Structures are given as C-alpha cells and as structure tokens.
C-alpha cells in the first residue's frame, strides 16, 4: 500500500484547493461514499429496506446507482487531475506512469482486504475481484485511453466498449448453454469468470466484478471523463450545465430504451445499465454543481465534502473496520459466540417494532463515525491519496 499525505499550504479550508477544483465534485463523490457505507453495513442483512438492497437480477434500485456513480466521478476527477498536472509541466508518460502506479496500489489494497477476509474467516477460497480491484482496473484502462486518444477519443472509445460487450454477450455461445443467455450461470460473463477465476469468485460460478463485465464499467469512467471535459470548458456555467444536463437526460433515455432488449442488470453491468447510470450520474452532478458551485449553497454539504476529499481512504477504512467488527467475538446469553458487529446492533439498535429501522440506524451510526474521521482529516488538512 502506498499513500500520500497532502498537507495544505494554508490553514484556510478554501485557500488550499486549486482554483480549478470543483467543490461540487468532492460533494458528489462524498454523497456516493456515504451511500456505499450505508448500504454495505446494515445492522442485519435479514432486515433491510428494499431500496438499500441490490436488485435481485434485472432492474435497479438506489443501491445499484452507487458504484457506477463512483466510477463516473473517477472519470471526472481524472480529467481535472491530469489537467492540473499538465499545467505544472507533466508529460504524457509521467501521467501514464502515475496512472499505472495508482491503479496497482488500489487493486493491491482491494486484494489485500480479500486476503485478510480469507484468513480471518477461514474461507474455502480467496476471492480475487472486488470493488477496489474494479476501480483500479477501470481507472488504469480509462486513464490510458484518455492519454492515448485525447478528449475526442472518449466518446468513440466508450461507445465501442458498450457495443462490443453487448455483441459478445448476445452472440458468443457458452458451452452447455448456447448464445444470448443472461441468467446467472448461462451468460458469457459468468463463463469467463469460471474460466479465468475458477473458485476465486464472490458467488459460486460467477462474480459481479469479473473480468468481462469490467469492459462496460470502463465506459462508466470514460463517460465521467466526457463530463469532466465539458465542465472544464472555458465558458460560463450556463452552457456547461445545460450541456451536461441534456447529455445526461439523453443517456438516461437511451439506457432505458436499450434495456428493453439488453436488460438493465448491475451484476452483469450490461451496456444499458452503464448508459442509464452514466446519464443519471451526469444529471446528478449537474444539479450538484448548480447547487454548490453556482448558487454557493455549501453549508449543508460540508460532511460530504469531507468524505469526498478522502473517498477511497474512507471506503478502505470502512471495509477494514467491518471485517474487524465481524471477526471479534463476544460471549452471548445463548452460549454461542457473537460478533462485536452483531452485539452492537442487538444491544443498541434492535429496539423497534420494525427491525429494518434499527438496521438502518446502525448503518447511519456507522456512517457518522466515518464522517467524523473524514472531518478530522479535513480539519488537519490531511488528504490520503491511494
């Protein structure tokens, strides 16, 4: 793991950020991380409100927006970061080397957490893919494509990836199943998971972050890069926001229409799903920019800005904390050891007629702890760059 601590040059919260930095982007990223923490840590998975669960297969819920929104934000951030580095004299090969180093670090941290989980809970097999691993791969490929083809290559590259994945999923036959199957075991992405990863998957026979379904996820990063290029344009806010909102509305519509023939499915990261989520993310970011950067309504957004400025570090710490809370065992009245995670939920939050409320309050309390951590890091002007 490599991390950089970036102290501010000035103690003023505003003066430390580059002039080209969008506060709204930090807020958007922070809102996404907040959503990740809430949906990942209910008090008990047995009692969760439906919007806080992934769609069982086809379709989508609020929870299914979180990961693609974060990848979209990765693409936006990449454009601003590269732009600032180029202004400081960085060469394309310097940016490429930085991209590779950072992607490897993110992937390694994700794999390291999987190894820790494997060791702590004596699992039968080690899962290789994961959320951080997919972020690392998508950032790597998206960054290299951007450096190789520039802003004019973003749309053709994204469209090619989405169309390529759709054709592969529809036309390439899977041994024992045939072509065009989109069920859990019979689809091409699951077959590639079994072929490449063997038993090292999240579910038996397939993984939602597997190799083939990473292809359209890369397009999610490129869509964010397109939004970043639009927001960096040297024009007034109005045409930039109108363009971003219109593009988002168009992508949302096309994603829904495409979903009638290539179903919207997060587990398979179908092309229709990637397009729909990119559209919704663009609309959401446009609204965030208008509220925070244009109108200047920032007070409400402070906790999300704290989270957004240390997004990957906070997410990583939350995963580590969850593993440790589940690993530590305490005695219970039944005589069977209970995890510290379950003990906290049952002792402090399981107090309501509807257990889903207590489960949600646990998740919100977990989030509050990490908002406090992010706030402390922000106050100390410490920004951890994975």
Quickly count the domains: 2
Secondary-structure-derived class: mainly alpha
End-to-end span in angstroms? 8 Å
Helix share bin: 55-70%
Outline, from the CA principal axes? Answer: globular
Low-confidence parts: 7-19
Average per-residue pLDDT, rounded, comes to: 93
* Order of H and E elements: EHHHHHHHHHHHEEHHE
- Count the helices. How many? 13
What profile does the largest beta sheet have?
2 strands, antiparallel
Beta strand %: under 5%
Biggest β-sheet: strands ordered side by side in the sheet = 1-4
- Rg, alpha carbons: 21 Å
Please tell me about this protein's structure.
With 386 residues, the chain is mainly α. About 3% of the residues have low confidence.
Q: What's this entry about, in short?
A:
By secondary structure, this protein is mostly helical. It has helices at 23-40, 63-87, 92-120, 131-149, 154-171, 188-197, 214-231, 237-258, 271-294, 302-309, 311-327, 340-349, 355-379; strands spanning 4-5, 329-330, 338-339, 384-385. The longest helix has 29 residues, at 92-120.
Write the layout of secondary structure elements.
Blueprint: E1 4-5, H1 23-40, H2 63-87, H3 92-120, H4 131-149, H5 154-171, H6 188-197, H7 214-231, H8 237-258, H9 271-294, H10 302-309, H11 311-327, E2 329-330, E3 338-339, H12 340-349, H13 355-379, E4 384-385
Antiparallel strand pairs: 1-4, 2-3
Helix pairs in contact: 1-2, 1-9, 1-10, 1-11, 1-13, 2-4, 2-7, 2-9, 3-4, 3-11, 4-7, 5-7, 5-9, 7-9, 8-9, 10-13, 12-13
């Amino acid at each position: 793991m490599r991390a950089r601590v970036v102290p501010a040059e000035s103690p003023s919260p505003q003066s430390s950020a580059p002039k080209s930095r969008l506060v709204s982007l930090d807020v958007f990223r922070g809102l996404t991380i907040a959503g990740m923490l809430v949906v990942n840590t209910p008090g008990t998975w047995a009692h969760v409100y439906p919007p806080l669960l992934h769609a069982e297969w086809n379709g989508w819920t609020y929870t299914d927006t979180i990961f693609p929104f974060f990848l979209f934000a990765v693409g936006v951030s990449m454009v601003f970061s590269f732009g600032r580095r180029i202004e400081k004299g960085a060469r394309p090969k310097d940016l490429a080397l930085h991209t590779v180093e950072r992607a490897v670090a993110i992937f390694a941290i994700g794999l390291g957490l999987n190894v820790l989980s494997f060791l702590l809970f004596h699992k039968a097999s080690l899962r290789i893919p994961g959320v951080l691993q997919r972020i690392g791969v998508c950032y790597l490929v998206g960054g290299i494509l951007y450096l190789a083809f520039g802003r004019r290559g973003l749309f053709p590259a994204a469209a090619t990836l989405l169309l390529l994945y759709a054709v592969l999923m529809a036309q390439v036959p899977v041994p024992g199943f045939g072509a065009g199957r989109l069920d859990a075991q019979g689809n091409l992405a699951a077959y590639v998971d079994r072929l490449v990863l063997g038993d090292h998957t999240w579910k038996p026979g397939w993984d939602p972050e597997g190799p083939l379904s990473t292809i359209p996820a890369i397009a999610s990063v490129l869509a964010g890069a397109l939004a970043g290029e639009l927001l960096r344009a040297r024009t007034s806010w109005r045409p930039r926001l109108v363009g971003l909102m219109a593009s988002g509305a168009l992508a949302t519509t096309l994603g829904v229409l495409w979903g009638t023939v290539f179903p919207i499915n997060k587990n398979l990261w179908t092309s229709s799903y990637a397009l729909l989520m990119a559209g919704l993310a663009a609309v959401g970011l446009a609204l965030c920019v208008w509220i925070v950067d244009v109108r200047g309504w920032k007070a409400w957004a402070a906790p999300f800005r704290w989270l957004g400025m240390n997004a990957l570090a906070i997410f990583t710490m939350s995963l580590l904390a969850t593993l440790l809370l589940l690993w530590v065992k305490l005695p219970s009245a039944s005589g069977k050891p209970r995890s510290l995670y379950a003990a906290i939920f049952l002792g402090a939050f399981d107090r309501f007629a509807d257990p889903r409320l207590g489960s949600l309050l646990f998740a919100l309390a977990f989030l509050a702890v990490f908002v406090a951590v992010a706030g402390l890091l922000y106050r100390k002007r410490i920004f951890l760059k994975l």
